[in-house]
Amino acid sequence: QMPGTARHDREMAIQAKRNLSKTTDPVERLRLQCLARGSAGIKGLGRVFRIMDDDNSRTLDFKEFVKGLNDYAMMIDKEEAQEIFRIFDKDGSGTIDFDEFLVTLRPPMSKARKEIIMQAFRKLDKTGDGVITIEDLRGVYNAKHHPKYQNGDWTEDQVFRAFLDNFDSPYDKDGKVTTEEFMNYYAGVSASIDTDVYFIIMMKNAWKI
After folding, report:
1. Domain extent at residue 90
2. pTM of the predicted model as reported, rounded to 2 decimal places
3. Residue 33 CB contacts under 8 Å (≥ 6 apart), including other chains
4. Among 56, 191, 20, 25, which Cα is nearest to 110's?
5. What pLDDT sits at residue 172?
6. Are 196 and 121 found together in one domain?
7. What is the C-alpha R_g of the chain?
């Protein structure tokens, strides 16, 4: 975890629960229910959908969608679920693409926030190929300070891998982090932070930008 995110997570969860009683927009309600579980809440719903997707089509029909929401203990009635499904099923095919669903569910961010996130990404992406890998991290991140490295539990590569897994898609942990995955992670963190200024300071401190 990055410095300070545990506290933001708690604040965000409390804020999301508070806002839930005020909003009537079904997509916003679903987003807030996810965020009430912390910044990985949206990713967690993605994981549930992934498990439901038996044929690896990366799409869900309405029945699977509702089952996923129920398995994830989302408080949503059938009418509301239908409304959400219709919003995401843009072409009316009767299925939704769940990558698109997760991106739409992601809390919106200002241009300033996206820019600082991309700066952090570029700093980590040493090779500049648009993907962060263990190779990239060797030049940027010192594994030797990690407690599990110090007590001999983990090798340097295992420390790097655990670090990448924070940002990786929960259903596709492949040790590579794309800009999309990095953005998704920070959208969750961002939701707990009210002002751009504070978010930017946090990012600058965390990544020494």
Report:
1. 3-105
2. 0.66
3. 16, 20, 41, 74, 75, 76
4. 191
5. 67
6. yes
7. 18
